[in-house]
């Protein structure tokens, strides 16, 4: 065993897991084949809202290869099984039961009504055509405002309302700031806008899938999930399976972005069907099924009021949201707007703040966490309204931001929401971004183009952001009625030959955990990077964990690994002292060696591991084991930040938008692996830019999703995006020993407002102050021609939206 010579943390190592992932030498869930395995297919409702009059499955039961056909009454004869919601945000929150299969009524197009099990997947899908379902259509509810109007038809009659819950925060009532109405009424400048966060579909690479094997003494489920540990607990609670009799494995998972954070009806169906038949069952969805029936993201109407003095000092912020839950409550979707509630104030010293959110049911696919989960929505609103305020005041948007942001010497800073930002330096990140971007030069070019009446106008977009990530601490989550904690677990096993196995409760789905965790342990124990194996995603080998979402893996799971490594060293120290015949206080540990101070006498962690294995010569009363585990519950969230600058060229004759340059400087504290950081930022930028310019769902008047394939739901390719200029500043976190902050969501959070602000900046001279996303050529052209894309929002005379124009096409 050779000790690591130079530090691993901070080194740009290529991901060790890519060797199998990129070459295909791994097993995704759909690759798993078991003896006697059957295949499951789901019949989905073509209607968004309808009573189920009858279901005739007789022809399907006699179809080729079919083993069984199940309806709701077959799977759940007592109609008692309902999908879980882990976040009751208010005591009176409505929670309509979401059945595993619809029994009497369907509430969105794509809801499952029957299951076919056959010997092959093709036979199962063919037999779906033989099922005859008679529906009695009900009124469709798509518009959030119409849904909560008096006399509106109800998604769920037994709930009495389409309002799920109303959640509020007021700084005056909380004692964290002033009264916002007083601030607004006494201010010299008041700007009101309505912004629309369109509905998005998580486009992970691997569709959802699961395989259930009930044939042993323990049920084993493989699932393409982000949350194997939570899935196990929730499955046990939902179906009454003894938890110790259920093993959940998340094998290599091809992406998630929050889209695989749910506990799914399909997983519950697979468990029920496999148990009924006593045979292994596989379910694997098509891409169209993913887009139709997996959860969606975003979908908010944001009414924003900001007040300021004439010099640009912000005095108050008022936020009123409508959030579309879809037809049911997701696992955590009810609380996604609440995560955003604490981020509308962003990096600014806002003295008075009021937030109110109304969660609304509609006859659409449910919404839940999507990359950033509430934080992108909040950042978009505050960064857009800051640009609008700057225009009203005649100030440079960066000047206005600098006037109001928290200065680096003011950290730690307690915000108007009561959160304490531990560290940051917005000045340094912004200054570096301006230099890389050539901000002053582009402003000069912009002015020159405007004077010349150039048909291609240049816009400059700004987005400064921070986020609360690393979902924790548990006591704070408990105060928000979240159904779980924010801790994470890790264990380290020292093998006799000096090699190391690291067990983590954080379940990777493409983030590079195996590489980053190996780097952390290499530095902590002085073990070579190559001699470390990371084990994850299996509730049998990794028995305890809270899984992966919310940029929590490193700042919670990584710190649990550090704590476990510290315990290994502590266990090794008395053994080293015994072997070296010295007092423990005479030892120092560095680079994987215990050395007697002032001498060259030492022993390595590998030597100690072998001595422990033999157990021939250990101190009295010392157990022969170095293995250690730790559970880490952080004292605070992680608060990365950054400045993103975008230059966009807009052809005023066609509405075509071209991103000319994009610069971002992020501060994520100490970076464990800068190469992984770069990949996370690039991927995040692509998703955020896609929301600004490309992506968005469209439903027709009957509630049918008309953007249910990639032919209609537009995703950008590499050819549609610019080369990004990325850099970092570093203000270490003060709340964890690595000094790290989250990075997984940063690019997505910051990039959407940067791009939209750039486009609006380019066409503001035409009387446009907002365009509803995605900013397609048609929408941009329409705004230029009419000086508006009126969404009918109060206080937003140049609002957003195109009424009946719902074009989503148009490449860069």
What this model shows, in words?
Helix content is 28%, strand content 22%. The chain is globular and about 85 Å long. Strands 3-5-1-12-9-10-11 form a seven-stranded mixed beta sheet, with helices on both faces. Strands 7-15-14-13-8 form a five-stranded mixed beta sheet. A four-stranded mixed beta sheet has the order 18-26-27-28, sandwiched between helices. It starts with 17 loop residues before the first helix and ends in a 26-residue tail after the last helix. β23 and β24 form a beta hairpin. With 812 residues, it is of the alpha+beta class.
Q: How many angstroms separate the termini?
A: 53 Å
**Helical segment tally?**
22
What is the number of strand segments? Answer: 28
Main pleated sheet: 7 strands, mixed
Strand content: 15-25%
Q: Please state the CA-atom Rg, rounded to the nearest Å.
A: 28 Å
Which class do the helix and strand fractions yield? alpha+beta
- How is the largest sheet built, in terms of strand order? 3-5-1-12-9-10-11
Mean pLDDT: 94
Give the overall shape: globular
Low-confidence stretches: 790-812
Helicity range of the residues? 25-40%
Keywords: Molybdenum, Oxidoreductase
Protein name: Molybdopterin cofactor-binding domain-containing protein
InterPro entries: Ald_Oxase/Xan_DH_a/b, Ald_Oxase/Xan_DH_a/b_sf, Ald_Oxase/xanthine_DH-like, AldOxase/xan_DH_MoCoBD1, AldOxase/xan_DH_MoCoBD2, AldOxase/xan_DH_Mopterin-bd_sf
Biased composition (Gly residues): 790-803
């Amino acid at each position: 065993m050779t000790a690591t010579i130079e530090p691993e943390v901070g080194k740009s190592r290529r991901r060790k897991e890519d060797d199998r992932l990129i070459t295909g030498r791994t097993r995704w869930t759909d690759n798993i084949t078991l003896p006697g395995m059957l295949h499951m297919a789901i019949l989905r409702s073509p209607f968004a809202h309808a009573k189920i009059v009858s279901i005739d499955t007789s022809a399907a039961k006699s179809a080729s290869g079919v083993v069984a056909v199940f309806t709701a009454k077959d799977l759940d004869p007592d109609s008692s099984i309902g999908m879980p919601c882990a976040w009751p945000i208010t005591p009176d929150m409505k929670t309509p039961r979401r059945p595993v299969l619809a029994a009497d009524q369907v509430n969105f197009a794509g809801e499952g009504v029957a299951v076919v099990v056959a010997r092959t997947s093709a036979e199962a899908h063919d037999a779906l055509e033989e099922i005859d379902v008679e529906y009695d259509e009900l009124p469709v509810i798509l518009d959030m405002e119409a849904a909560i109007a008096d006399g509106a038809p109800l998604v769920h009659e037994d709930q009495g309302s389409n309002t799920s819950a109303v959640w509020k925060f007021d700084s005056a009532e909380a004692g964290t700031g002033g009264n916002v109405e007083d601030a607004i009424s006494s201010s010299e400048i008041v700007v009101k806008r309505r912004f629309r966060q369109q509905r998005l579909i998580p486009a992970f690479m691997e569709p959802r899938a699961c395989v259930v094997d009930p044939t042993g003494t323990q049920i084993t489920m493989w699932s393409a999930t982000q949350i194997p540990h939570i899935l196990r607990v929730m499955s046990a609670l939902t179906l009454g399976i003894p938890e110790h009799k259920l093993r959940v494995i998340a094998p290599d998972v091809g992406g998630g972005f929050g889209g695989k954070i749910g506990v799914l009806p399909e997983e519950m169906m697979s468990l029920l069907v496999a148990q009924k038949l006593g045979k292994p069952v596989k379910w694997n969805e098509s891409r169209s099924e993913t887009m139709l029936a997996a959860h969606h993201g975003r979908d908010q109407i944001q009414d924003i009021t900001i007040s300021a003095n004439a010099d640009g000092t912000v005095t108050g912020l008022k936020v009123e949201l409508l959030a579309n839950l879809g037809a049911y409550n997701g696992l955590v979707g009810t609380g996604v707007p609440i995560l955003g509630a604490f981020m509308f104030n962003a990096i600014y010293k806002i003295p008075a703040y009021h937030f109110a959110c109304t969660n609304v049911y509609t006859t659409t696919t449910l919404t839940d966490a999507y990359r950033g989960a509430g934080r992108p929505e909040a950042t978009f609103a505050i960064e857009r309204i800051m640009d609008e305020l700057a225009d009203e005041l005649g100030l440079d948007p960066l000047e206005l931001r600098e006037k109001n942001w928290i200065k680096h010497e003011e950290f730690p800073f307690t915000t108007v929401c009561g959160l304490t930002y531990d560290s940051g330096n917005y000045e340094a990140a912004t200054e570096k971004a301006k230099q890389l971007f050539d901000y002053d030069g582009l402003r000069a070019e912009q002015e020159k183009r405007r004077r010349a009446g150039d048909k291609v106008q240049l816009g400059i977009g700004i987005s400064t952001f921070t986020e609360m990530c690393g979902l924790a601490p548990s006591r704070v989550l408990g105060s928000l009625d979240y159904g779980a904690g924010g801790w994470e677990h890790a264990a380290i096993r020292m093998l006799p030959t000096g090699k190391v196995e690291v067990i983590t409760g954080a379940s990777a789905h493409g983030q590079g955990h195996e590489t980053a965790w190996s780097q952390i342990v290499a530095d902590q124990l002085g073990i070579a990077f190559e001699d470390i194996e990371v084990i994850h995603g299996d509730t049998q080998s990794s028995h305890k964990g809270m899984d992966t979402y919310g940029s929590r893996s490193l700042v919670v799971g990584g710190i649990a690994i550090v704590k476990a490594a510290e315990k290994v060293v502590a266990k090794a120290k008395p053994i080293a002292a015994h072997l070296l015949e010295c007092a423990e206080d005479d030892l120092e540990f560095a680079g994987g060696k215990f050395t007697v101070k002032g001498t060259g006498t030492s022993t390595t962690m590998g030597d100690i591991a072998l001595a422990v294995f033999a157990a021939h010569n250990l101190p009295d009363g010392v157990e022969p084991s170095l293995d250690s585990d730790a559970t880490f519950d952080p004292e605070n969230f992680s608060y990365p930040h950054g400045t993103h600058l975008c230059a966009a060229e807009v052809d005023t004759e066609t509405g075509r938008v071209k991103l000319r340059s994009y610069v971002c400087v992020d501060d994520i504290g100490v970076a464990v692996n800068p190469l992984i950081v770069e990949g996370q930022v690039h991927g995040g930028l692509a998703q955020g830019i896609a929301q600004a310019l490309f992506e968005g769902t469209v439903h027709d008047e009957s509630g049918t999703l008309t953007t249910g394939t990639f032919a209609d739901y537009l995703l950008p390719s590499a050819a549609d995006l610019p080369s990004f200029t990325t850099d970092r500043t570093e203000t270490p976190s003060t709340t964890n020993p690595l000094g790290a902050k989250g990075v997984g969501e940063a690019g997505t959070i910051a990039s959407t407002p940067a791009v939209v602000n750039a486009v609006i900046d380019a066409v503001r001279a035409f009387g446009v102050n907002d365009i509803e996303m995605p900013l397609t050529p048609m929408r941009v052209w329409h705004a230029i021609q009419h000086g508006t894309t009126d969404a009918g929002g109060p206080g937003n005379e140049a609002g957003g939206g195109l009424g009946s124009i719902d074009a989503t096409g148009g490449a860069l």
